[in-house]
Queue: 3 jobs
Job 1
Amino acid sequence: MINQDVCSYIQEKINDHYNLKGNEYFADMLVKNGYGQNCGGYFDDFKELVNTELAEPNQKLHFTNYYMNCKRKDKKPSYSSLHCPQLILWIAEISGLNYRHLNSAYDFIVTFEDVNKLKQNQKGGDYLKDYEGVEEEFKKLIKIYNINTIIKNSNSWKDILLEVNKL
């Protein structure tokens, strides 16, 4: 699977703010509650849409804008190299990661930001890298390396959802 395949699936099958079970995305809850990236990157790309109370710009737009550009759309997924916690969390959720892992990763970000008094502060997409080992620990909790491999090596979203749910 290449990024264009992933983006096509997302554009056709994925809701802007609610997962396949009809629940609000964990990533949206981060944004609405003042956690995660809140400046730079996709916030700058879509300044006219910024509304944290509505979790806009949403992660679907964030993802497709980034991966459908000419440089990335024909390449294999490389989501494990991302830094934005809400985009990583969203990718895991749309890929079928179970609630337990999603909730643990969400709680990890919330607790980390509360302990370090980062909530509501200006944070670019790579702010976790400023704290030794934090981004890596978050990525392991969310299983993004495994998810990336599953997506890259799969031929269908049915397979992706089944395999990721087993993690």
Job 2
Amino acid sequence: MESRFVNALLLLTVFTFVHLINSEDFHLPRLNPVSIGHEQTMHLESGRTLTIKTLAVNPPIFEIEDYLTNIECDHIIYLAMASSKWTESTIKGKVDKDKEIRKFNFTKGDKNNDNFLDPLELWNVMPRLQNSLITIEDIPEFVQLYNYDVDGDEKLTNEEFDRIDINLAFQWIENKMKKDKKNVVRLSKQVWLKHDSDEVLRSLKTRVVSLTRLPKGVVDSSEQLQVAQYDIGGHYHGHFDTLKLDKRQCLHSRELDGIKLTEPYDAVKYRLCRYATLMYYLNDVDEGGETAFPVADNATVSEKVIRAGGNIGDLSNHCKDANLVVKPKKGKAVLWYNHLHNKDGWVGDKDPYSYHGGCDIVKGVKWIANHWITVDTDQQRHIRFMNLREKRRGVERAKQEYNQKQEEQAMKQQVSSQDTQPQQQKLQKKQHQHLRKNHKNQHLPQSELIGLEDKSYIRNEL
């Protein structure tokens, strides 16, 4: 009976907490970069004023010094270190070998139709392993190791290409990943923190709403905070935080399909949909650890680096070749957009200029936190997802309020009981004295005192 009453009360109370969203009052703003070097201000509730500085226009990239206080940075690191759920980037990963084999084709590689594959063309069709980075500079080593270039002209004919054993290619890549950390795309360890699990994290989420001007529901329904640690040699080669638009649904809203976040998901059906990235530097790095945007504002750098025999995503060797390099500094935040807007002002396709990565740690250690703002490319689906999350938060808040009221009521009863205890003792003593007077000096049997709750003073009287 009591449980039914509690459930009914929760259902009634939850509506006082939930603000459901519809398409009429929902929009997706973004900060205007104006021009490189442009500054705009942000006022915090604490009274602090922050400066938002434009670092790039395409994609819009902003830098905010002292976005986090030293205490907030240290607290986030403390929370991360206290967690037991750390994961490390792996050297060996799964790969769709059938897909890689289909890609490994001479005709597909011969872009200029000269019946030869030069190192760049061979690199384009070489198989990949998950978390592996093979650069154009590595290709001559592979060709020479197995003597595939019979005539030594640094090009492969169709016949020479056919001699390549793709299984040996997979093995060669795996060996390079084990031998040299630079051939691993990401070398770090990371942990996830729930935004609502801590007062500091909750306040940061509120600050994100103020910074981005995004609806609170968007920020509330985004991913947990990822904290990452990079030791010496640690890096994250060039990558995108999101994926291009296709027929797949967004990964973060898979709960709408009945798939729990803790359950495995099918990458054929789901993709990342990270509208924007807000990255925090949690400490000062002695040397290295910059965040590089190789093609920010101008894609010609890719041609420049490739012609030099390099790879724009190889940030171990080409960090300084990036168009934009941001140095780490404790408390600094960097905001950028991973998606364009479509004609309706909603999430458009992936912005190719948002390609970025983390350069090698030369000395010291780097701590960062990533706050990814996830937005479904299907507006109505995202609204349904936000409302689902809001209902769940409403239930949790209703439960918390109910439990708090129960605790307060119990405390009042306890205090009330403590206040009335002396009065009860006085009344009991007066009753006992009345009994003694009527029985003169006779000692009363213990059985006649049954019903008096506290008999301590009676023992003293007798």
Job 3
Amino acid sequence: MVTLIFVLVAVLVAMGCLKAARVRGWRRSFNPSAPELPDSAFVVGRVLLFGMAGIGVYTAFQSMAVSADAEWSDDELTSAVSQATTALDGASRFGDIFGDDSSFDDEYARMIEEEVVEHGGGGAPQTGVDAASSDTNKASDARYTVSASGAAAAFCVHVERIRSKDDDWEPPGVAGGAGTVTVPSYKFAVTSREGEC
């Protein structure tokens, strides 16, 4: 798209640079009975052509800026993964009261993707991050290959979930006494390294 705009700009500039005598000669060869064009018509034509070329250059640079903001760079992804790892390391979450860990893989992947996007900075897009899980993942030990659209770099994020019984939550019972259900608490140890898992 940008290349097409620059080609169009070049054509407009070339048209604006044509000499009046050459245009008059072409007109006479195609239509000898046509009235002669005044010099003011060429001035107005040149102003319009160069004006459209200027708008085209502006549009092309705006398109390049938008496409740069729509994709991640390696530096943006490197910084975002590093900051996301720091933010997630030591974080804690409550688990399922029934001990059902079946959705841990999607939950961890979403947690990593959201943190990376959040730490991407002002120039990074708010989408395009993918945390692909390893086939050997377990709820207590999982690895994810983090990549982003536009970036050639990839990172392996290792998530260890550690039971933290001291932080469990016991909601009060119906009658206001001690409850019978304990909501387990877990802490995460998160590390990352460059490369796929």
